Amino acid sequence: MPDFKFTSLCTATHTPFHPDGSLNLGAVERQASFLRSHGITSVFIGGTTGESSSLTTAERAALNDRWAVVGPATGIEVIVHVGSNCLTEAAQLATHAQKNGAKAVSMIAPSYFKPRTLADLVASCAMVAKAAPRLPFYYYDIPGMTGLSGFPVDELLKAASPVIPNLAGVKYSNPDLEAMRRAGALEGGRFDLPFGVDEHFLSALRAGATAGVGSTYNFNPGPLLRTIAAHSKGDDALAEAEQAKVQPVVNILAKRGYMGAAKALMGHLGVPLGPARLPNGNPDAAEIKKMIGELEAIGFFSWNF
Predict the structure, then answer these.
(1) Total structural domains within the chain
(2) pLDDT digits (tens, 9 = 90+) for 22-58
(3) Kind and range of the H or E run holding 249
(4) pLDDT tens digits, residue range 163-193?
(5) Which residues pair with 104 in a beta bridge?
(6) Residue 196 sits in a domain of what CATH number?
(7) Against a cut of 0.90, is the pTM above it?
(8) Of 79, 229, 230, 266, which residue has the fewest beta carbons closer than 10 angstroms?
(9) What is the dihedral of CA 14, 33, 95, 169, to 10 degrees?
(10) CB 49: neighbour CB atoms within 10 A?
(11) Is 107 helix (H, G, I), strand (E, B) or coil?
């Protein structure tokens, strides 16, 4: 298994669509170039931000195919989310990602038929991890989306470690920082725990996180890049000031429907990614104009561009 660990900020990328909602793989090169120009060197594709549950398996494979070419050409490492309610499809996507040279794979738990026991969850992860044995495997803990909240991450790692040889860690989108601390102490600190709740990133750094995977890095990476730098120097005041620039942006987008608003903002920034797919909605032109005005009023464009 290759030696891999998340570092700095890994952007959870949007999946680009044409205006009619069909997959637009031609936009990936512009997307990658934009991210790289703003200090991003790794991406997490086909996850929550990538609307994976609204993509067909064929579309997810095609998205991986495109990033497998564009990522290395742009100097960006590609981590592929493969989770699905159908574990057979998740395993197929994991094998596909391994063939494409991904740096790692990750999966959410099935969320329609939810694992009833920790053993069932571990078996689900093992089935998918086994399909890409040469890649680091990360469980993706996001209880706010899956509704699966009864399995603390440290307990999962202790149970999964003996049966998943390529278990590398957890993409941790969970506000329970105490469980993250416990997980970080397991097996001499060997597990990688990139944090995925952008609004609480500084708290996670203080709890031992060393990297993040998040959606706001698409359009607002500057503040958290500076948060990391300030935290590493012990400059708490600056770290807190930079972290404070995340929540207002999230609020402005979220009140219009976060997914569609975020993609509209990317379009305003010169990276046309099309609309969000239903059931996510999209703001109309008038609402986008109001959104841009609110972002200007808080100084957003001076933070990054």
Answers:
(1) 1
(2) 999 999 999 999 999 999 999 999 999 999 999 999 9
(3) helix 247-254
(4) 999 999 999 999 999 999 999 999 999 999 9
(5) 79
(6) 3.20.20.70
(7) yes
(8) 229
(9) -70
(10) 25
(11) strand
